[in-house]
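Incident log, structure service

09:12 report received: a user says their structure output differs between two submissions of the same chain.
09:20 pulled the input from the user's history:
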Amino acid sequence: MAITCKINLTNELDHVFVPGETVYGVVQYKLSEDITFKKISISLKGKDLLSIDGTYQTVDCSDASNKNYVEVTNIVHEDERGSTFASGEYEMSFSMTLPYNIPKSFNYKKNKDGYYINYKLFYYVRVKFERPGILNKSQSFKKWINVTSSIVPTLPRVSVTYEEKKRLIKLFSRRENAITLKATVDNSIVEPGGRVKLQCDVKNDSAFNIKEIEIKLVEDFRIKSANINENVCDVLHTIRLNPSLSIRGDTDLMKVVLDVPRDAHTVNNSRLVDRNYFVYITAVLPAFYRNAVLKVPIEVGENNLDNIVVRDAPPSYWDAMNLNRPEVTK
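09:34 re-ran on a clean worker, output below:
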């Protein structure tokens, strides 16, 4: 098909869209010869794809319903019998609004135990030209857009304390042996590139020495497709401390700051995956004893996406230049 097409967004270069924002643009296409079309449409779409490549096979874990996060279509031209467009240059403007409560654009690639996990969540503007007749294939052109979104917090924004008490067994001893871990978080909601601030309180009420306190910020990427149940944990930041907790009743109070990567972001509104963050505080015990572990949930995401400037759609090229549009022959 002798069509060349370019999709131009009127938003500034490298613009990042947010839920509820309107995507404006102009489609410019050129026909090198007269062509008959039965339908021309402009769509705004958003979807995700998940696949796991193994040694012998590839498992497609995408949603079987094939439902999109965004499915907005403007029909520019429609005629089942077809209308002939003369050769020349054409232009059509579009305006489509992103829905609320959609996940951000996301690309995740990871190797785990010989498997390659590939997940993409993406948005794009598509122009589709359809011709009448079974033998005439449709032709599509796409323009990718980047979408970010703020998280819907499920954790408190105020200071909160978590506690875990681990009881230990010591032969020929009637006294209770326990290690208590406490962690107070200033704010459980952290922006990408920000910091997690903790105050850790470790109490050794046992006959065992605590060899080390290990504090880790962990990303938990979990696949929730019906086809497979798998998760990948990545340690983003680790702090190791050597407390002096060798005597029963010893207590150590520590203030800890953990750096959050700029590309970190909690994902909790995808149909196929979840991405969450936790702080693990571990009291390392002598051999043959399981360590005491406290798990503290953290949510990472933007909180300042409300101040969006909504602009009116710009005039079309033909209106701005005071030119007549090319005629369509039916």
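09:41 both user submissions now match this output. Likely a transient worker issue. Closing.
09:42 reviewer note: Helices lie at 317-320. Residues 317-320 form the longest helix (4 residues).
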